[in-house]
Ammonium transporter
Amino acid sequence: MKHFFTILALVGAVAIGAPAWADETPAGLSAASPAMTLAQAPTAAAEVAATASAVAAVEAAPQLSKADNGWIMVCAALVILMSLPGLALFYGGLVRTKNMLSVLMQVFVTFSLISVLWVVYGYSLAFTEGGSFFGVLDKVFLKGITADSLGATFSKGVFISELTFVIFQGAFAAITCCLIVGAFAERAKFAAILVFMIIWFTLSYAPMAHMVWYWAGPDAYIDAAAGEAAGKTAGFLFQKGALDFAGGTVVHINAAVAGLVGAFMIGKRIGYGRESMAPHSLTFTMIGASLLWFGWFGFNAGSALEASGGSALAMVNTWLATACATLSWMLAEWMLKGKPSMLGAASGAVAGLVAITPAAGFVGVMGAIAIGLLAGVVCLWGVNGLKHMLGADDSLDVFGVHGVGGILGAILTGVFASPSLGGSGVYDYVANAVGEYDMTAQVISQLWGVGTVIVWSGIVSVVAFKVVDLLIGLRVPEDEEREGLDITAHGESAYHY
């Protein structure tokens, strides 16, 4: 009770003294010096204005989007998973037992080689402002790129770390070169493959990436005049209006043409058409295809460069088109050959992944279904009918799947990107809205992309293979090929039984 009265007394004292405290002058100001107070007012106002300007400057400066940056870092890791071990296992299972390690080695080392070259000069050639076909060497060894450097996305004012963009695109470059080795597996010299990759990466992959994907970024398009000026600095095919969301031209057609040229120039495997060359482990092939499908979510959804609705659309389309292609390939094969095969299902999945790649973020769900269903059937023809027509020993059907699927997907992107068919259309960064869509004009732009990459990669590949053949030879001796490249080229065996 005593404590209760004490508390009441304290409350009363505070209440009674409050009016007096309210009349006291705050510390640092003198009620008797009004002239001093007025004199200080302009200074205080100036300080407030300066602070406001500083805050506005900070807010206006480009800021890293941590969420988007984190997502693209994850996607870069997923794309790396596609090569190691995804593609390596997919290819390894398709060759004969005696060549299993040679294919794993070719993929593993090619990936490593291109990763280094990408940092040394590849990124600079592909993603700096230069001409319409090549960038410049201002960023060799990533010169000038720091932890604070920012890269544009596809939204104004949204940025990710440029280092994140470097590794994401570097993973694309590496897997593109790895794809090529499947076309001439089981017979090419290991050293010849590496030298070819250096030449082809420099003269075909880097310029093609620049032609298709280099632009000044959305923030450069502040008005019509600025947009026109920025457009003139973009890559050749970007200026032509070709759409390639994640690499139908840059990755798949590019690699497939190089592989086909290699298959012709290196020649057929000994015993091709007479001896059994069946895959030695469809188990590995199925595991590899599954890892490719999983990693491809990073490949396609990550190409939105943001954790956005567009990224989600690309992910859904990648999931759905692949499933559709798996089913259509399997059903067509079932009708033609009487039995559905694991090899057919896995091949169909990859065909669907390839075909949806250029379209992933541009088409709606119905477009993805159509592209997937067509890809399964058309690529089945590519690895059977077209392959026999061409007469090349494309060991692991690189052109039949990646070339045919890439061409199909690139052209159909121009069709199903139309808003009238559920697509996203083409965004106008000056008007900040989706522009009018001309399907015919867009398909023509897509054909420009397809034609350019076929011709460019074809010429570079012929020259590169010829140079390598003159320097060190392309093919292993017949006795080494018969024994198998695991032992003759690497001194190892995949299996000991």
